[in-house]
Design a protein that fits this description.
single chain; alpha/beta; Rossmann fold; 2 domains; five-stranded parallel β-sheet; 18 helices
């Protein structure tokens, strides 16, 4: 089993909060993490997709009384949103009994639905954590003793969903991801309420994969899909809420420059990007036009997987050509500018240096496909993806 670094963080939050919500897309490993946590403390697990477990929580107060001294893990919590109002009363009653923490661990596959239902009912009582697909540090720890670059290439090609990553062949991995896409489009999204034709959503998702890392033109996509611009915005919001698409916002502080203000769009998991584009092998990826955008998205997701929720992520671009692929705002005064290059011999344009001066970046990095760290200029270092992730962890 791949050890997920987020587990210790969740255990720490359970020691300080009555409830913790672990959110992430389906099949990303939430249940595995939860059951591993359950192995370290008295607990009981309920899956609300199981009719028998759903019946158990029809009277959640009675169920809690019988399991008061256990951690109650409730999977697919978004299927029963009305439960949150009752849970608030249970948590407050336990607080009055002695400030008991670590009562509930919720697992959810849709951030919007979960956040909507809990924002008011459990305000001040619930901590949120997002489980991302397996990142480079987790994967390389699991693959100790193997060649670094070949294993990173495997993770990049197949993506970080554990079952896709651990299959015996690239062909099996692609078949798993195709099933994943089909399940989301034919079952999961309709369960959330939207009545959108499956084929339309598939085409839309594929269009986003083709434009990985670009600022999309909603009107252009709408014409190709035969829908309205409002529908395109609604589809995009849906995929963002399902944690399948990232909308990376521009850094737009007033610095007297003409700034690009449209967000950049990424399919969050590189393996899903490649499945949408029918890229099966690493050689296929090397010859595909999406390679640059795919690598950029892969690097960004890995970096953001190890950053604190307090760190804000943006990109920066001016109409004059100054650009930073990823800008991390650690504090109001500390900003890390990160340029992403697929080349093993990276070179920087004047636009990056100009952008760093514009935003007053305190650190400057170029993430490239090699393994060494070396200076590119007095203030800028070339660095491997995993070394930058370790630096952020520190």
């Amino acid at each position: 089993m791949i050890e997920r670094n987020i587990q210790s963080r969740i255990q720490g939050l359970l020691k300080r909060n009555p409830a913790v919500a672990l959110i992430g897309p389906r099949q990303v490993g939430k249940t595995t993490v939860a059951l591993s946590i359950a192995g370290h403390c008295p607990s009981t697990y309920l899956d609300l997709e199981n009719p028998r477990d759903l019946a158990k929580v029809s009277d959640i107060e009675a169920f809690h009384v019988e399991n008061r001294e256990k951690l109650i893990i409730i999977d697919e919590i978004q299927r029963l949103p009305e439960i949150f109002a009752t849970l608030r009363g249970i948590i407050d009653k336990e607080r009055r009994r002695g400030a008991k923490v670590g009562q509930f661990l919720f697992l959810g596959s849709a951030s919007l639905e979960l956040l909507k239902q809990t924002s008011e009912s459990l305000a001040g009582r619930l901590a949120y954590v997002e489980l991302c697909p397996v990142d480079s540090l987790e994967w390389l720890e699991y693959q100790k003793g193997t060649t670094l670059q070949s294993q990173l290439n495997r993770l990049w090609l197949r993506g970080g969903f554990p079952e896709s990553l651990l299959t015996k062949s690239d062909e099996d991995s692609l078949a798993w991801r195709e099933d994943f896409l089909r399940t989301y489009l034919e079952r999961d999204i309709p369960q959330l309420g939207p009545r959108i034709p499956t084929e339309t959503l598939r085409r839309f998702w594929t269009m986003l994969a083709h434009h990985q890392g670009a600022m999309i033109n909603a009107a252009h996509l709408a014409r190709n899909l035969g829908v309205s611009g409002q529908s395109v915005t609604r589809y995009l919001d849906l995929f963002v809420d399902l944690l399948l698409i990232r909308r990376l916002q521009p850094w737009t502080s007033n610095i007297g420059k003409r700034l690009i203000r449209a967000p950049k769009i990424y399919v969050r998991d590189s393996g899903i990007t490649h499945a949408l584009l029918n890229i099966q092998t690493f050689n296929d990826l090397m010859g595909h036009p999406v390679i640059g955008g795919s690598w950029e998205g892969f690097v960004i997701e890995n970096i953001l997987a190890v950053t604190s929720s307090r760190i804000k992520a943006y990109f920066y671009r001016t109409s004059g050509g100054a650009e930073i692929d990823l800008l991390l705002e650690l504090t109001s005064r500390e900003k890390w500018a990160i340029e992403i290059k697929r080349s093993s011999a990276p070179a920087l344009s004047r636009g990056f240096y100009t952008a760093c001066e514009d935003v007053q970046a305190t650190k400057r990095f170029v993430v490239y496909a090699g393994e060494d760290t070396f200076p590119l200029s007095q203030k800028t270092r070339a660095i491997s993806l995993t070394d930058l992730m370790k630096e952020l962890n520190q």
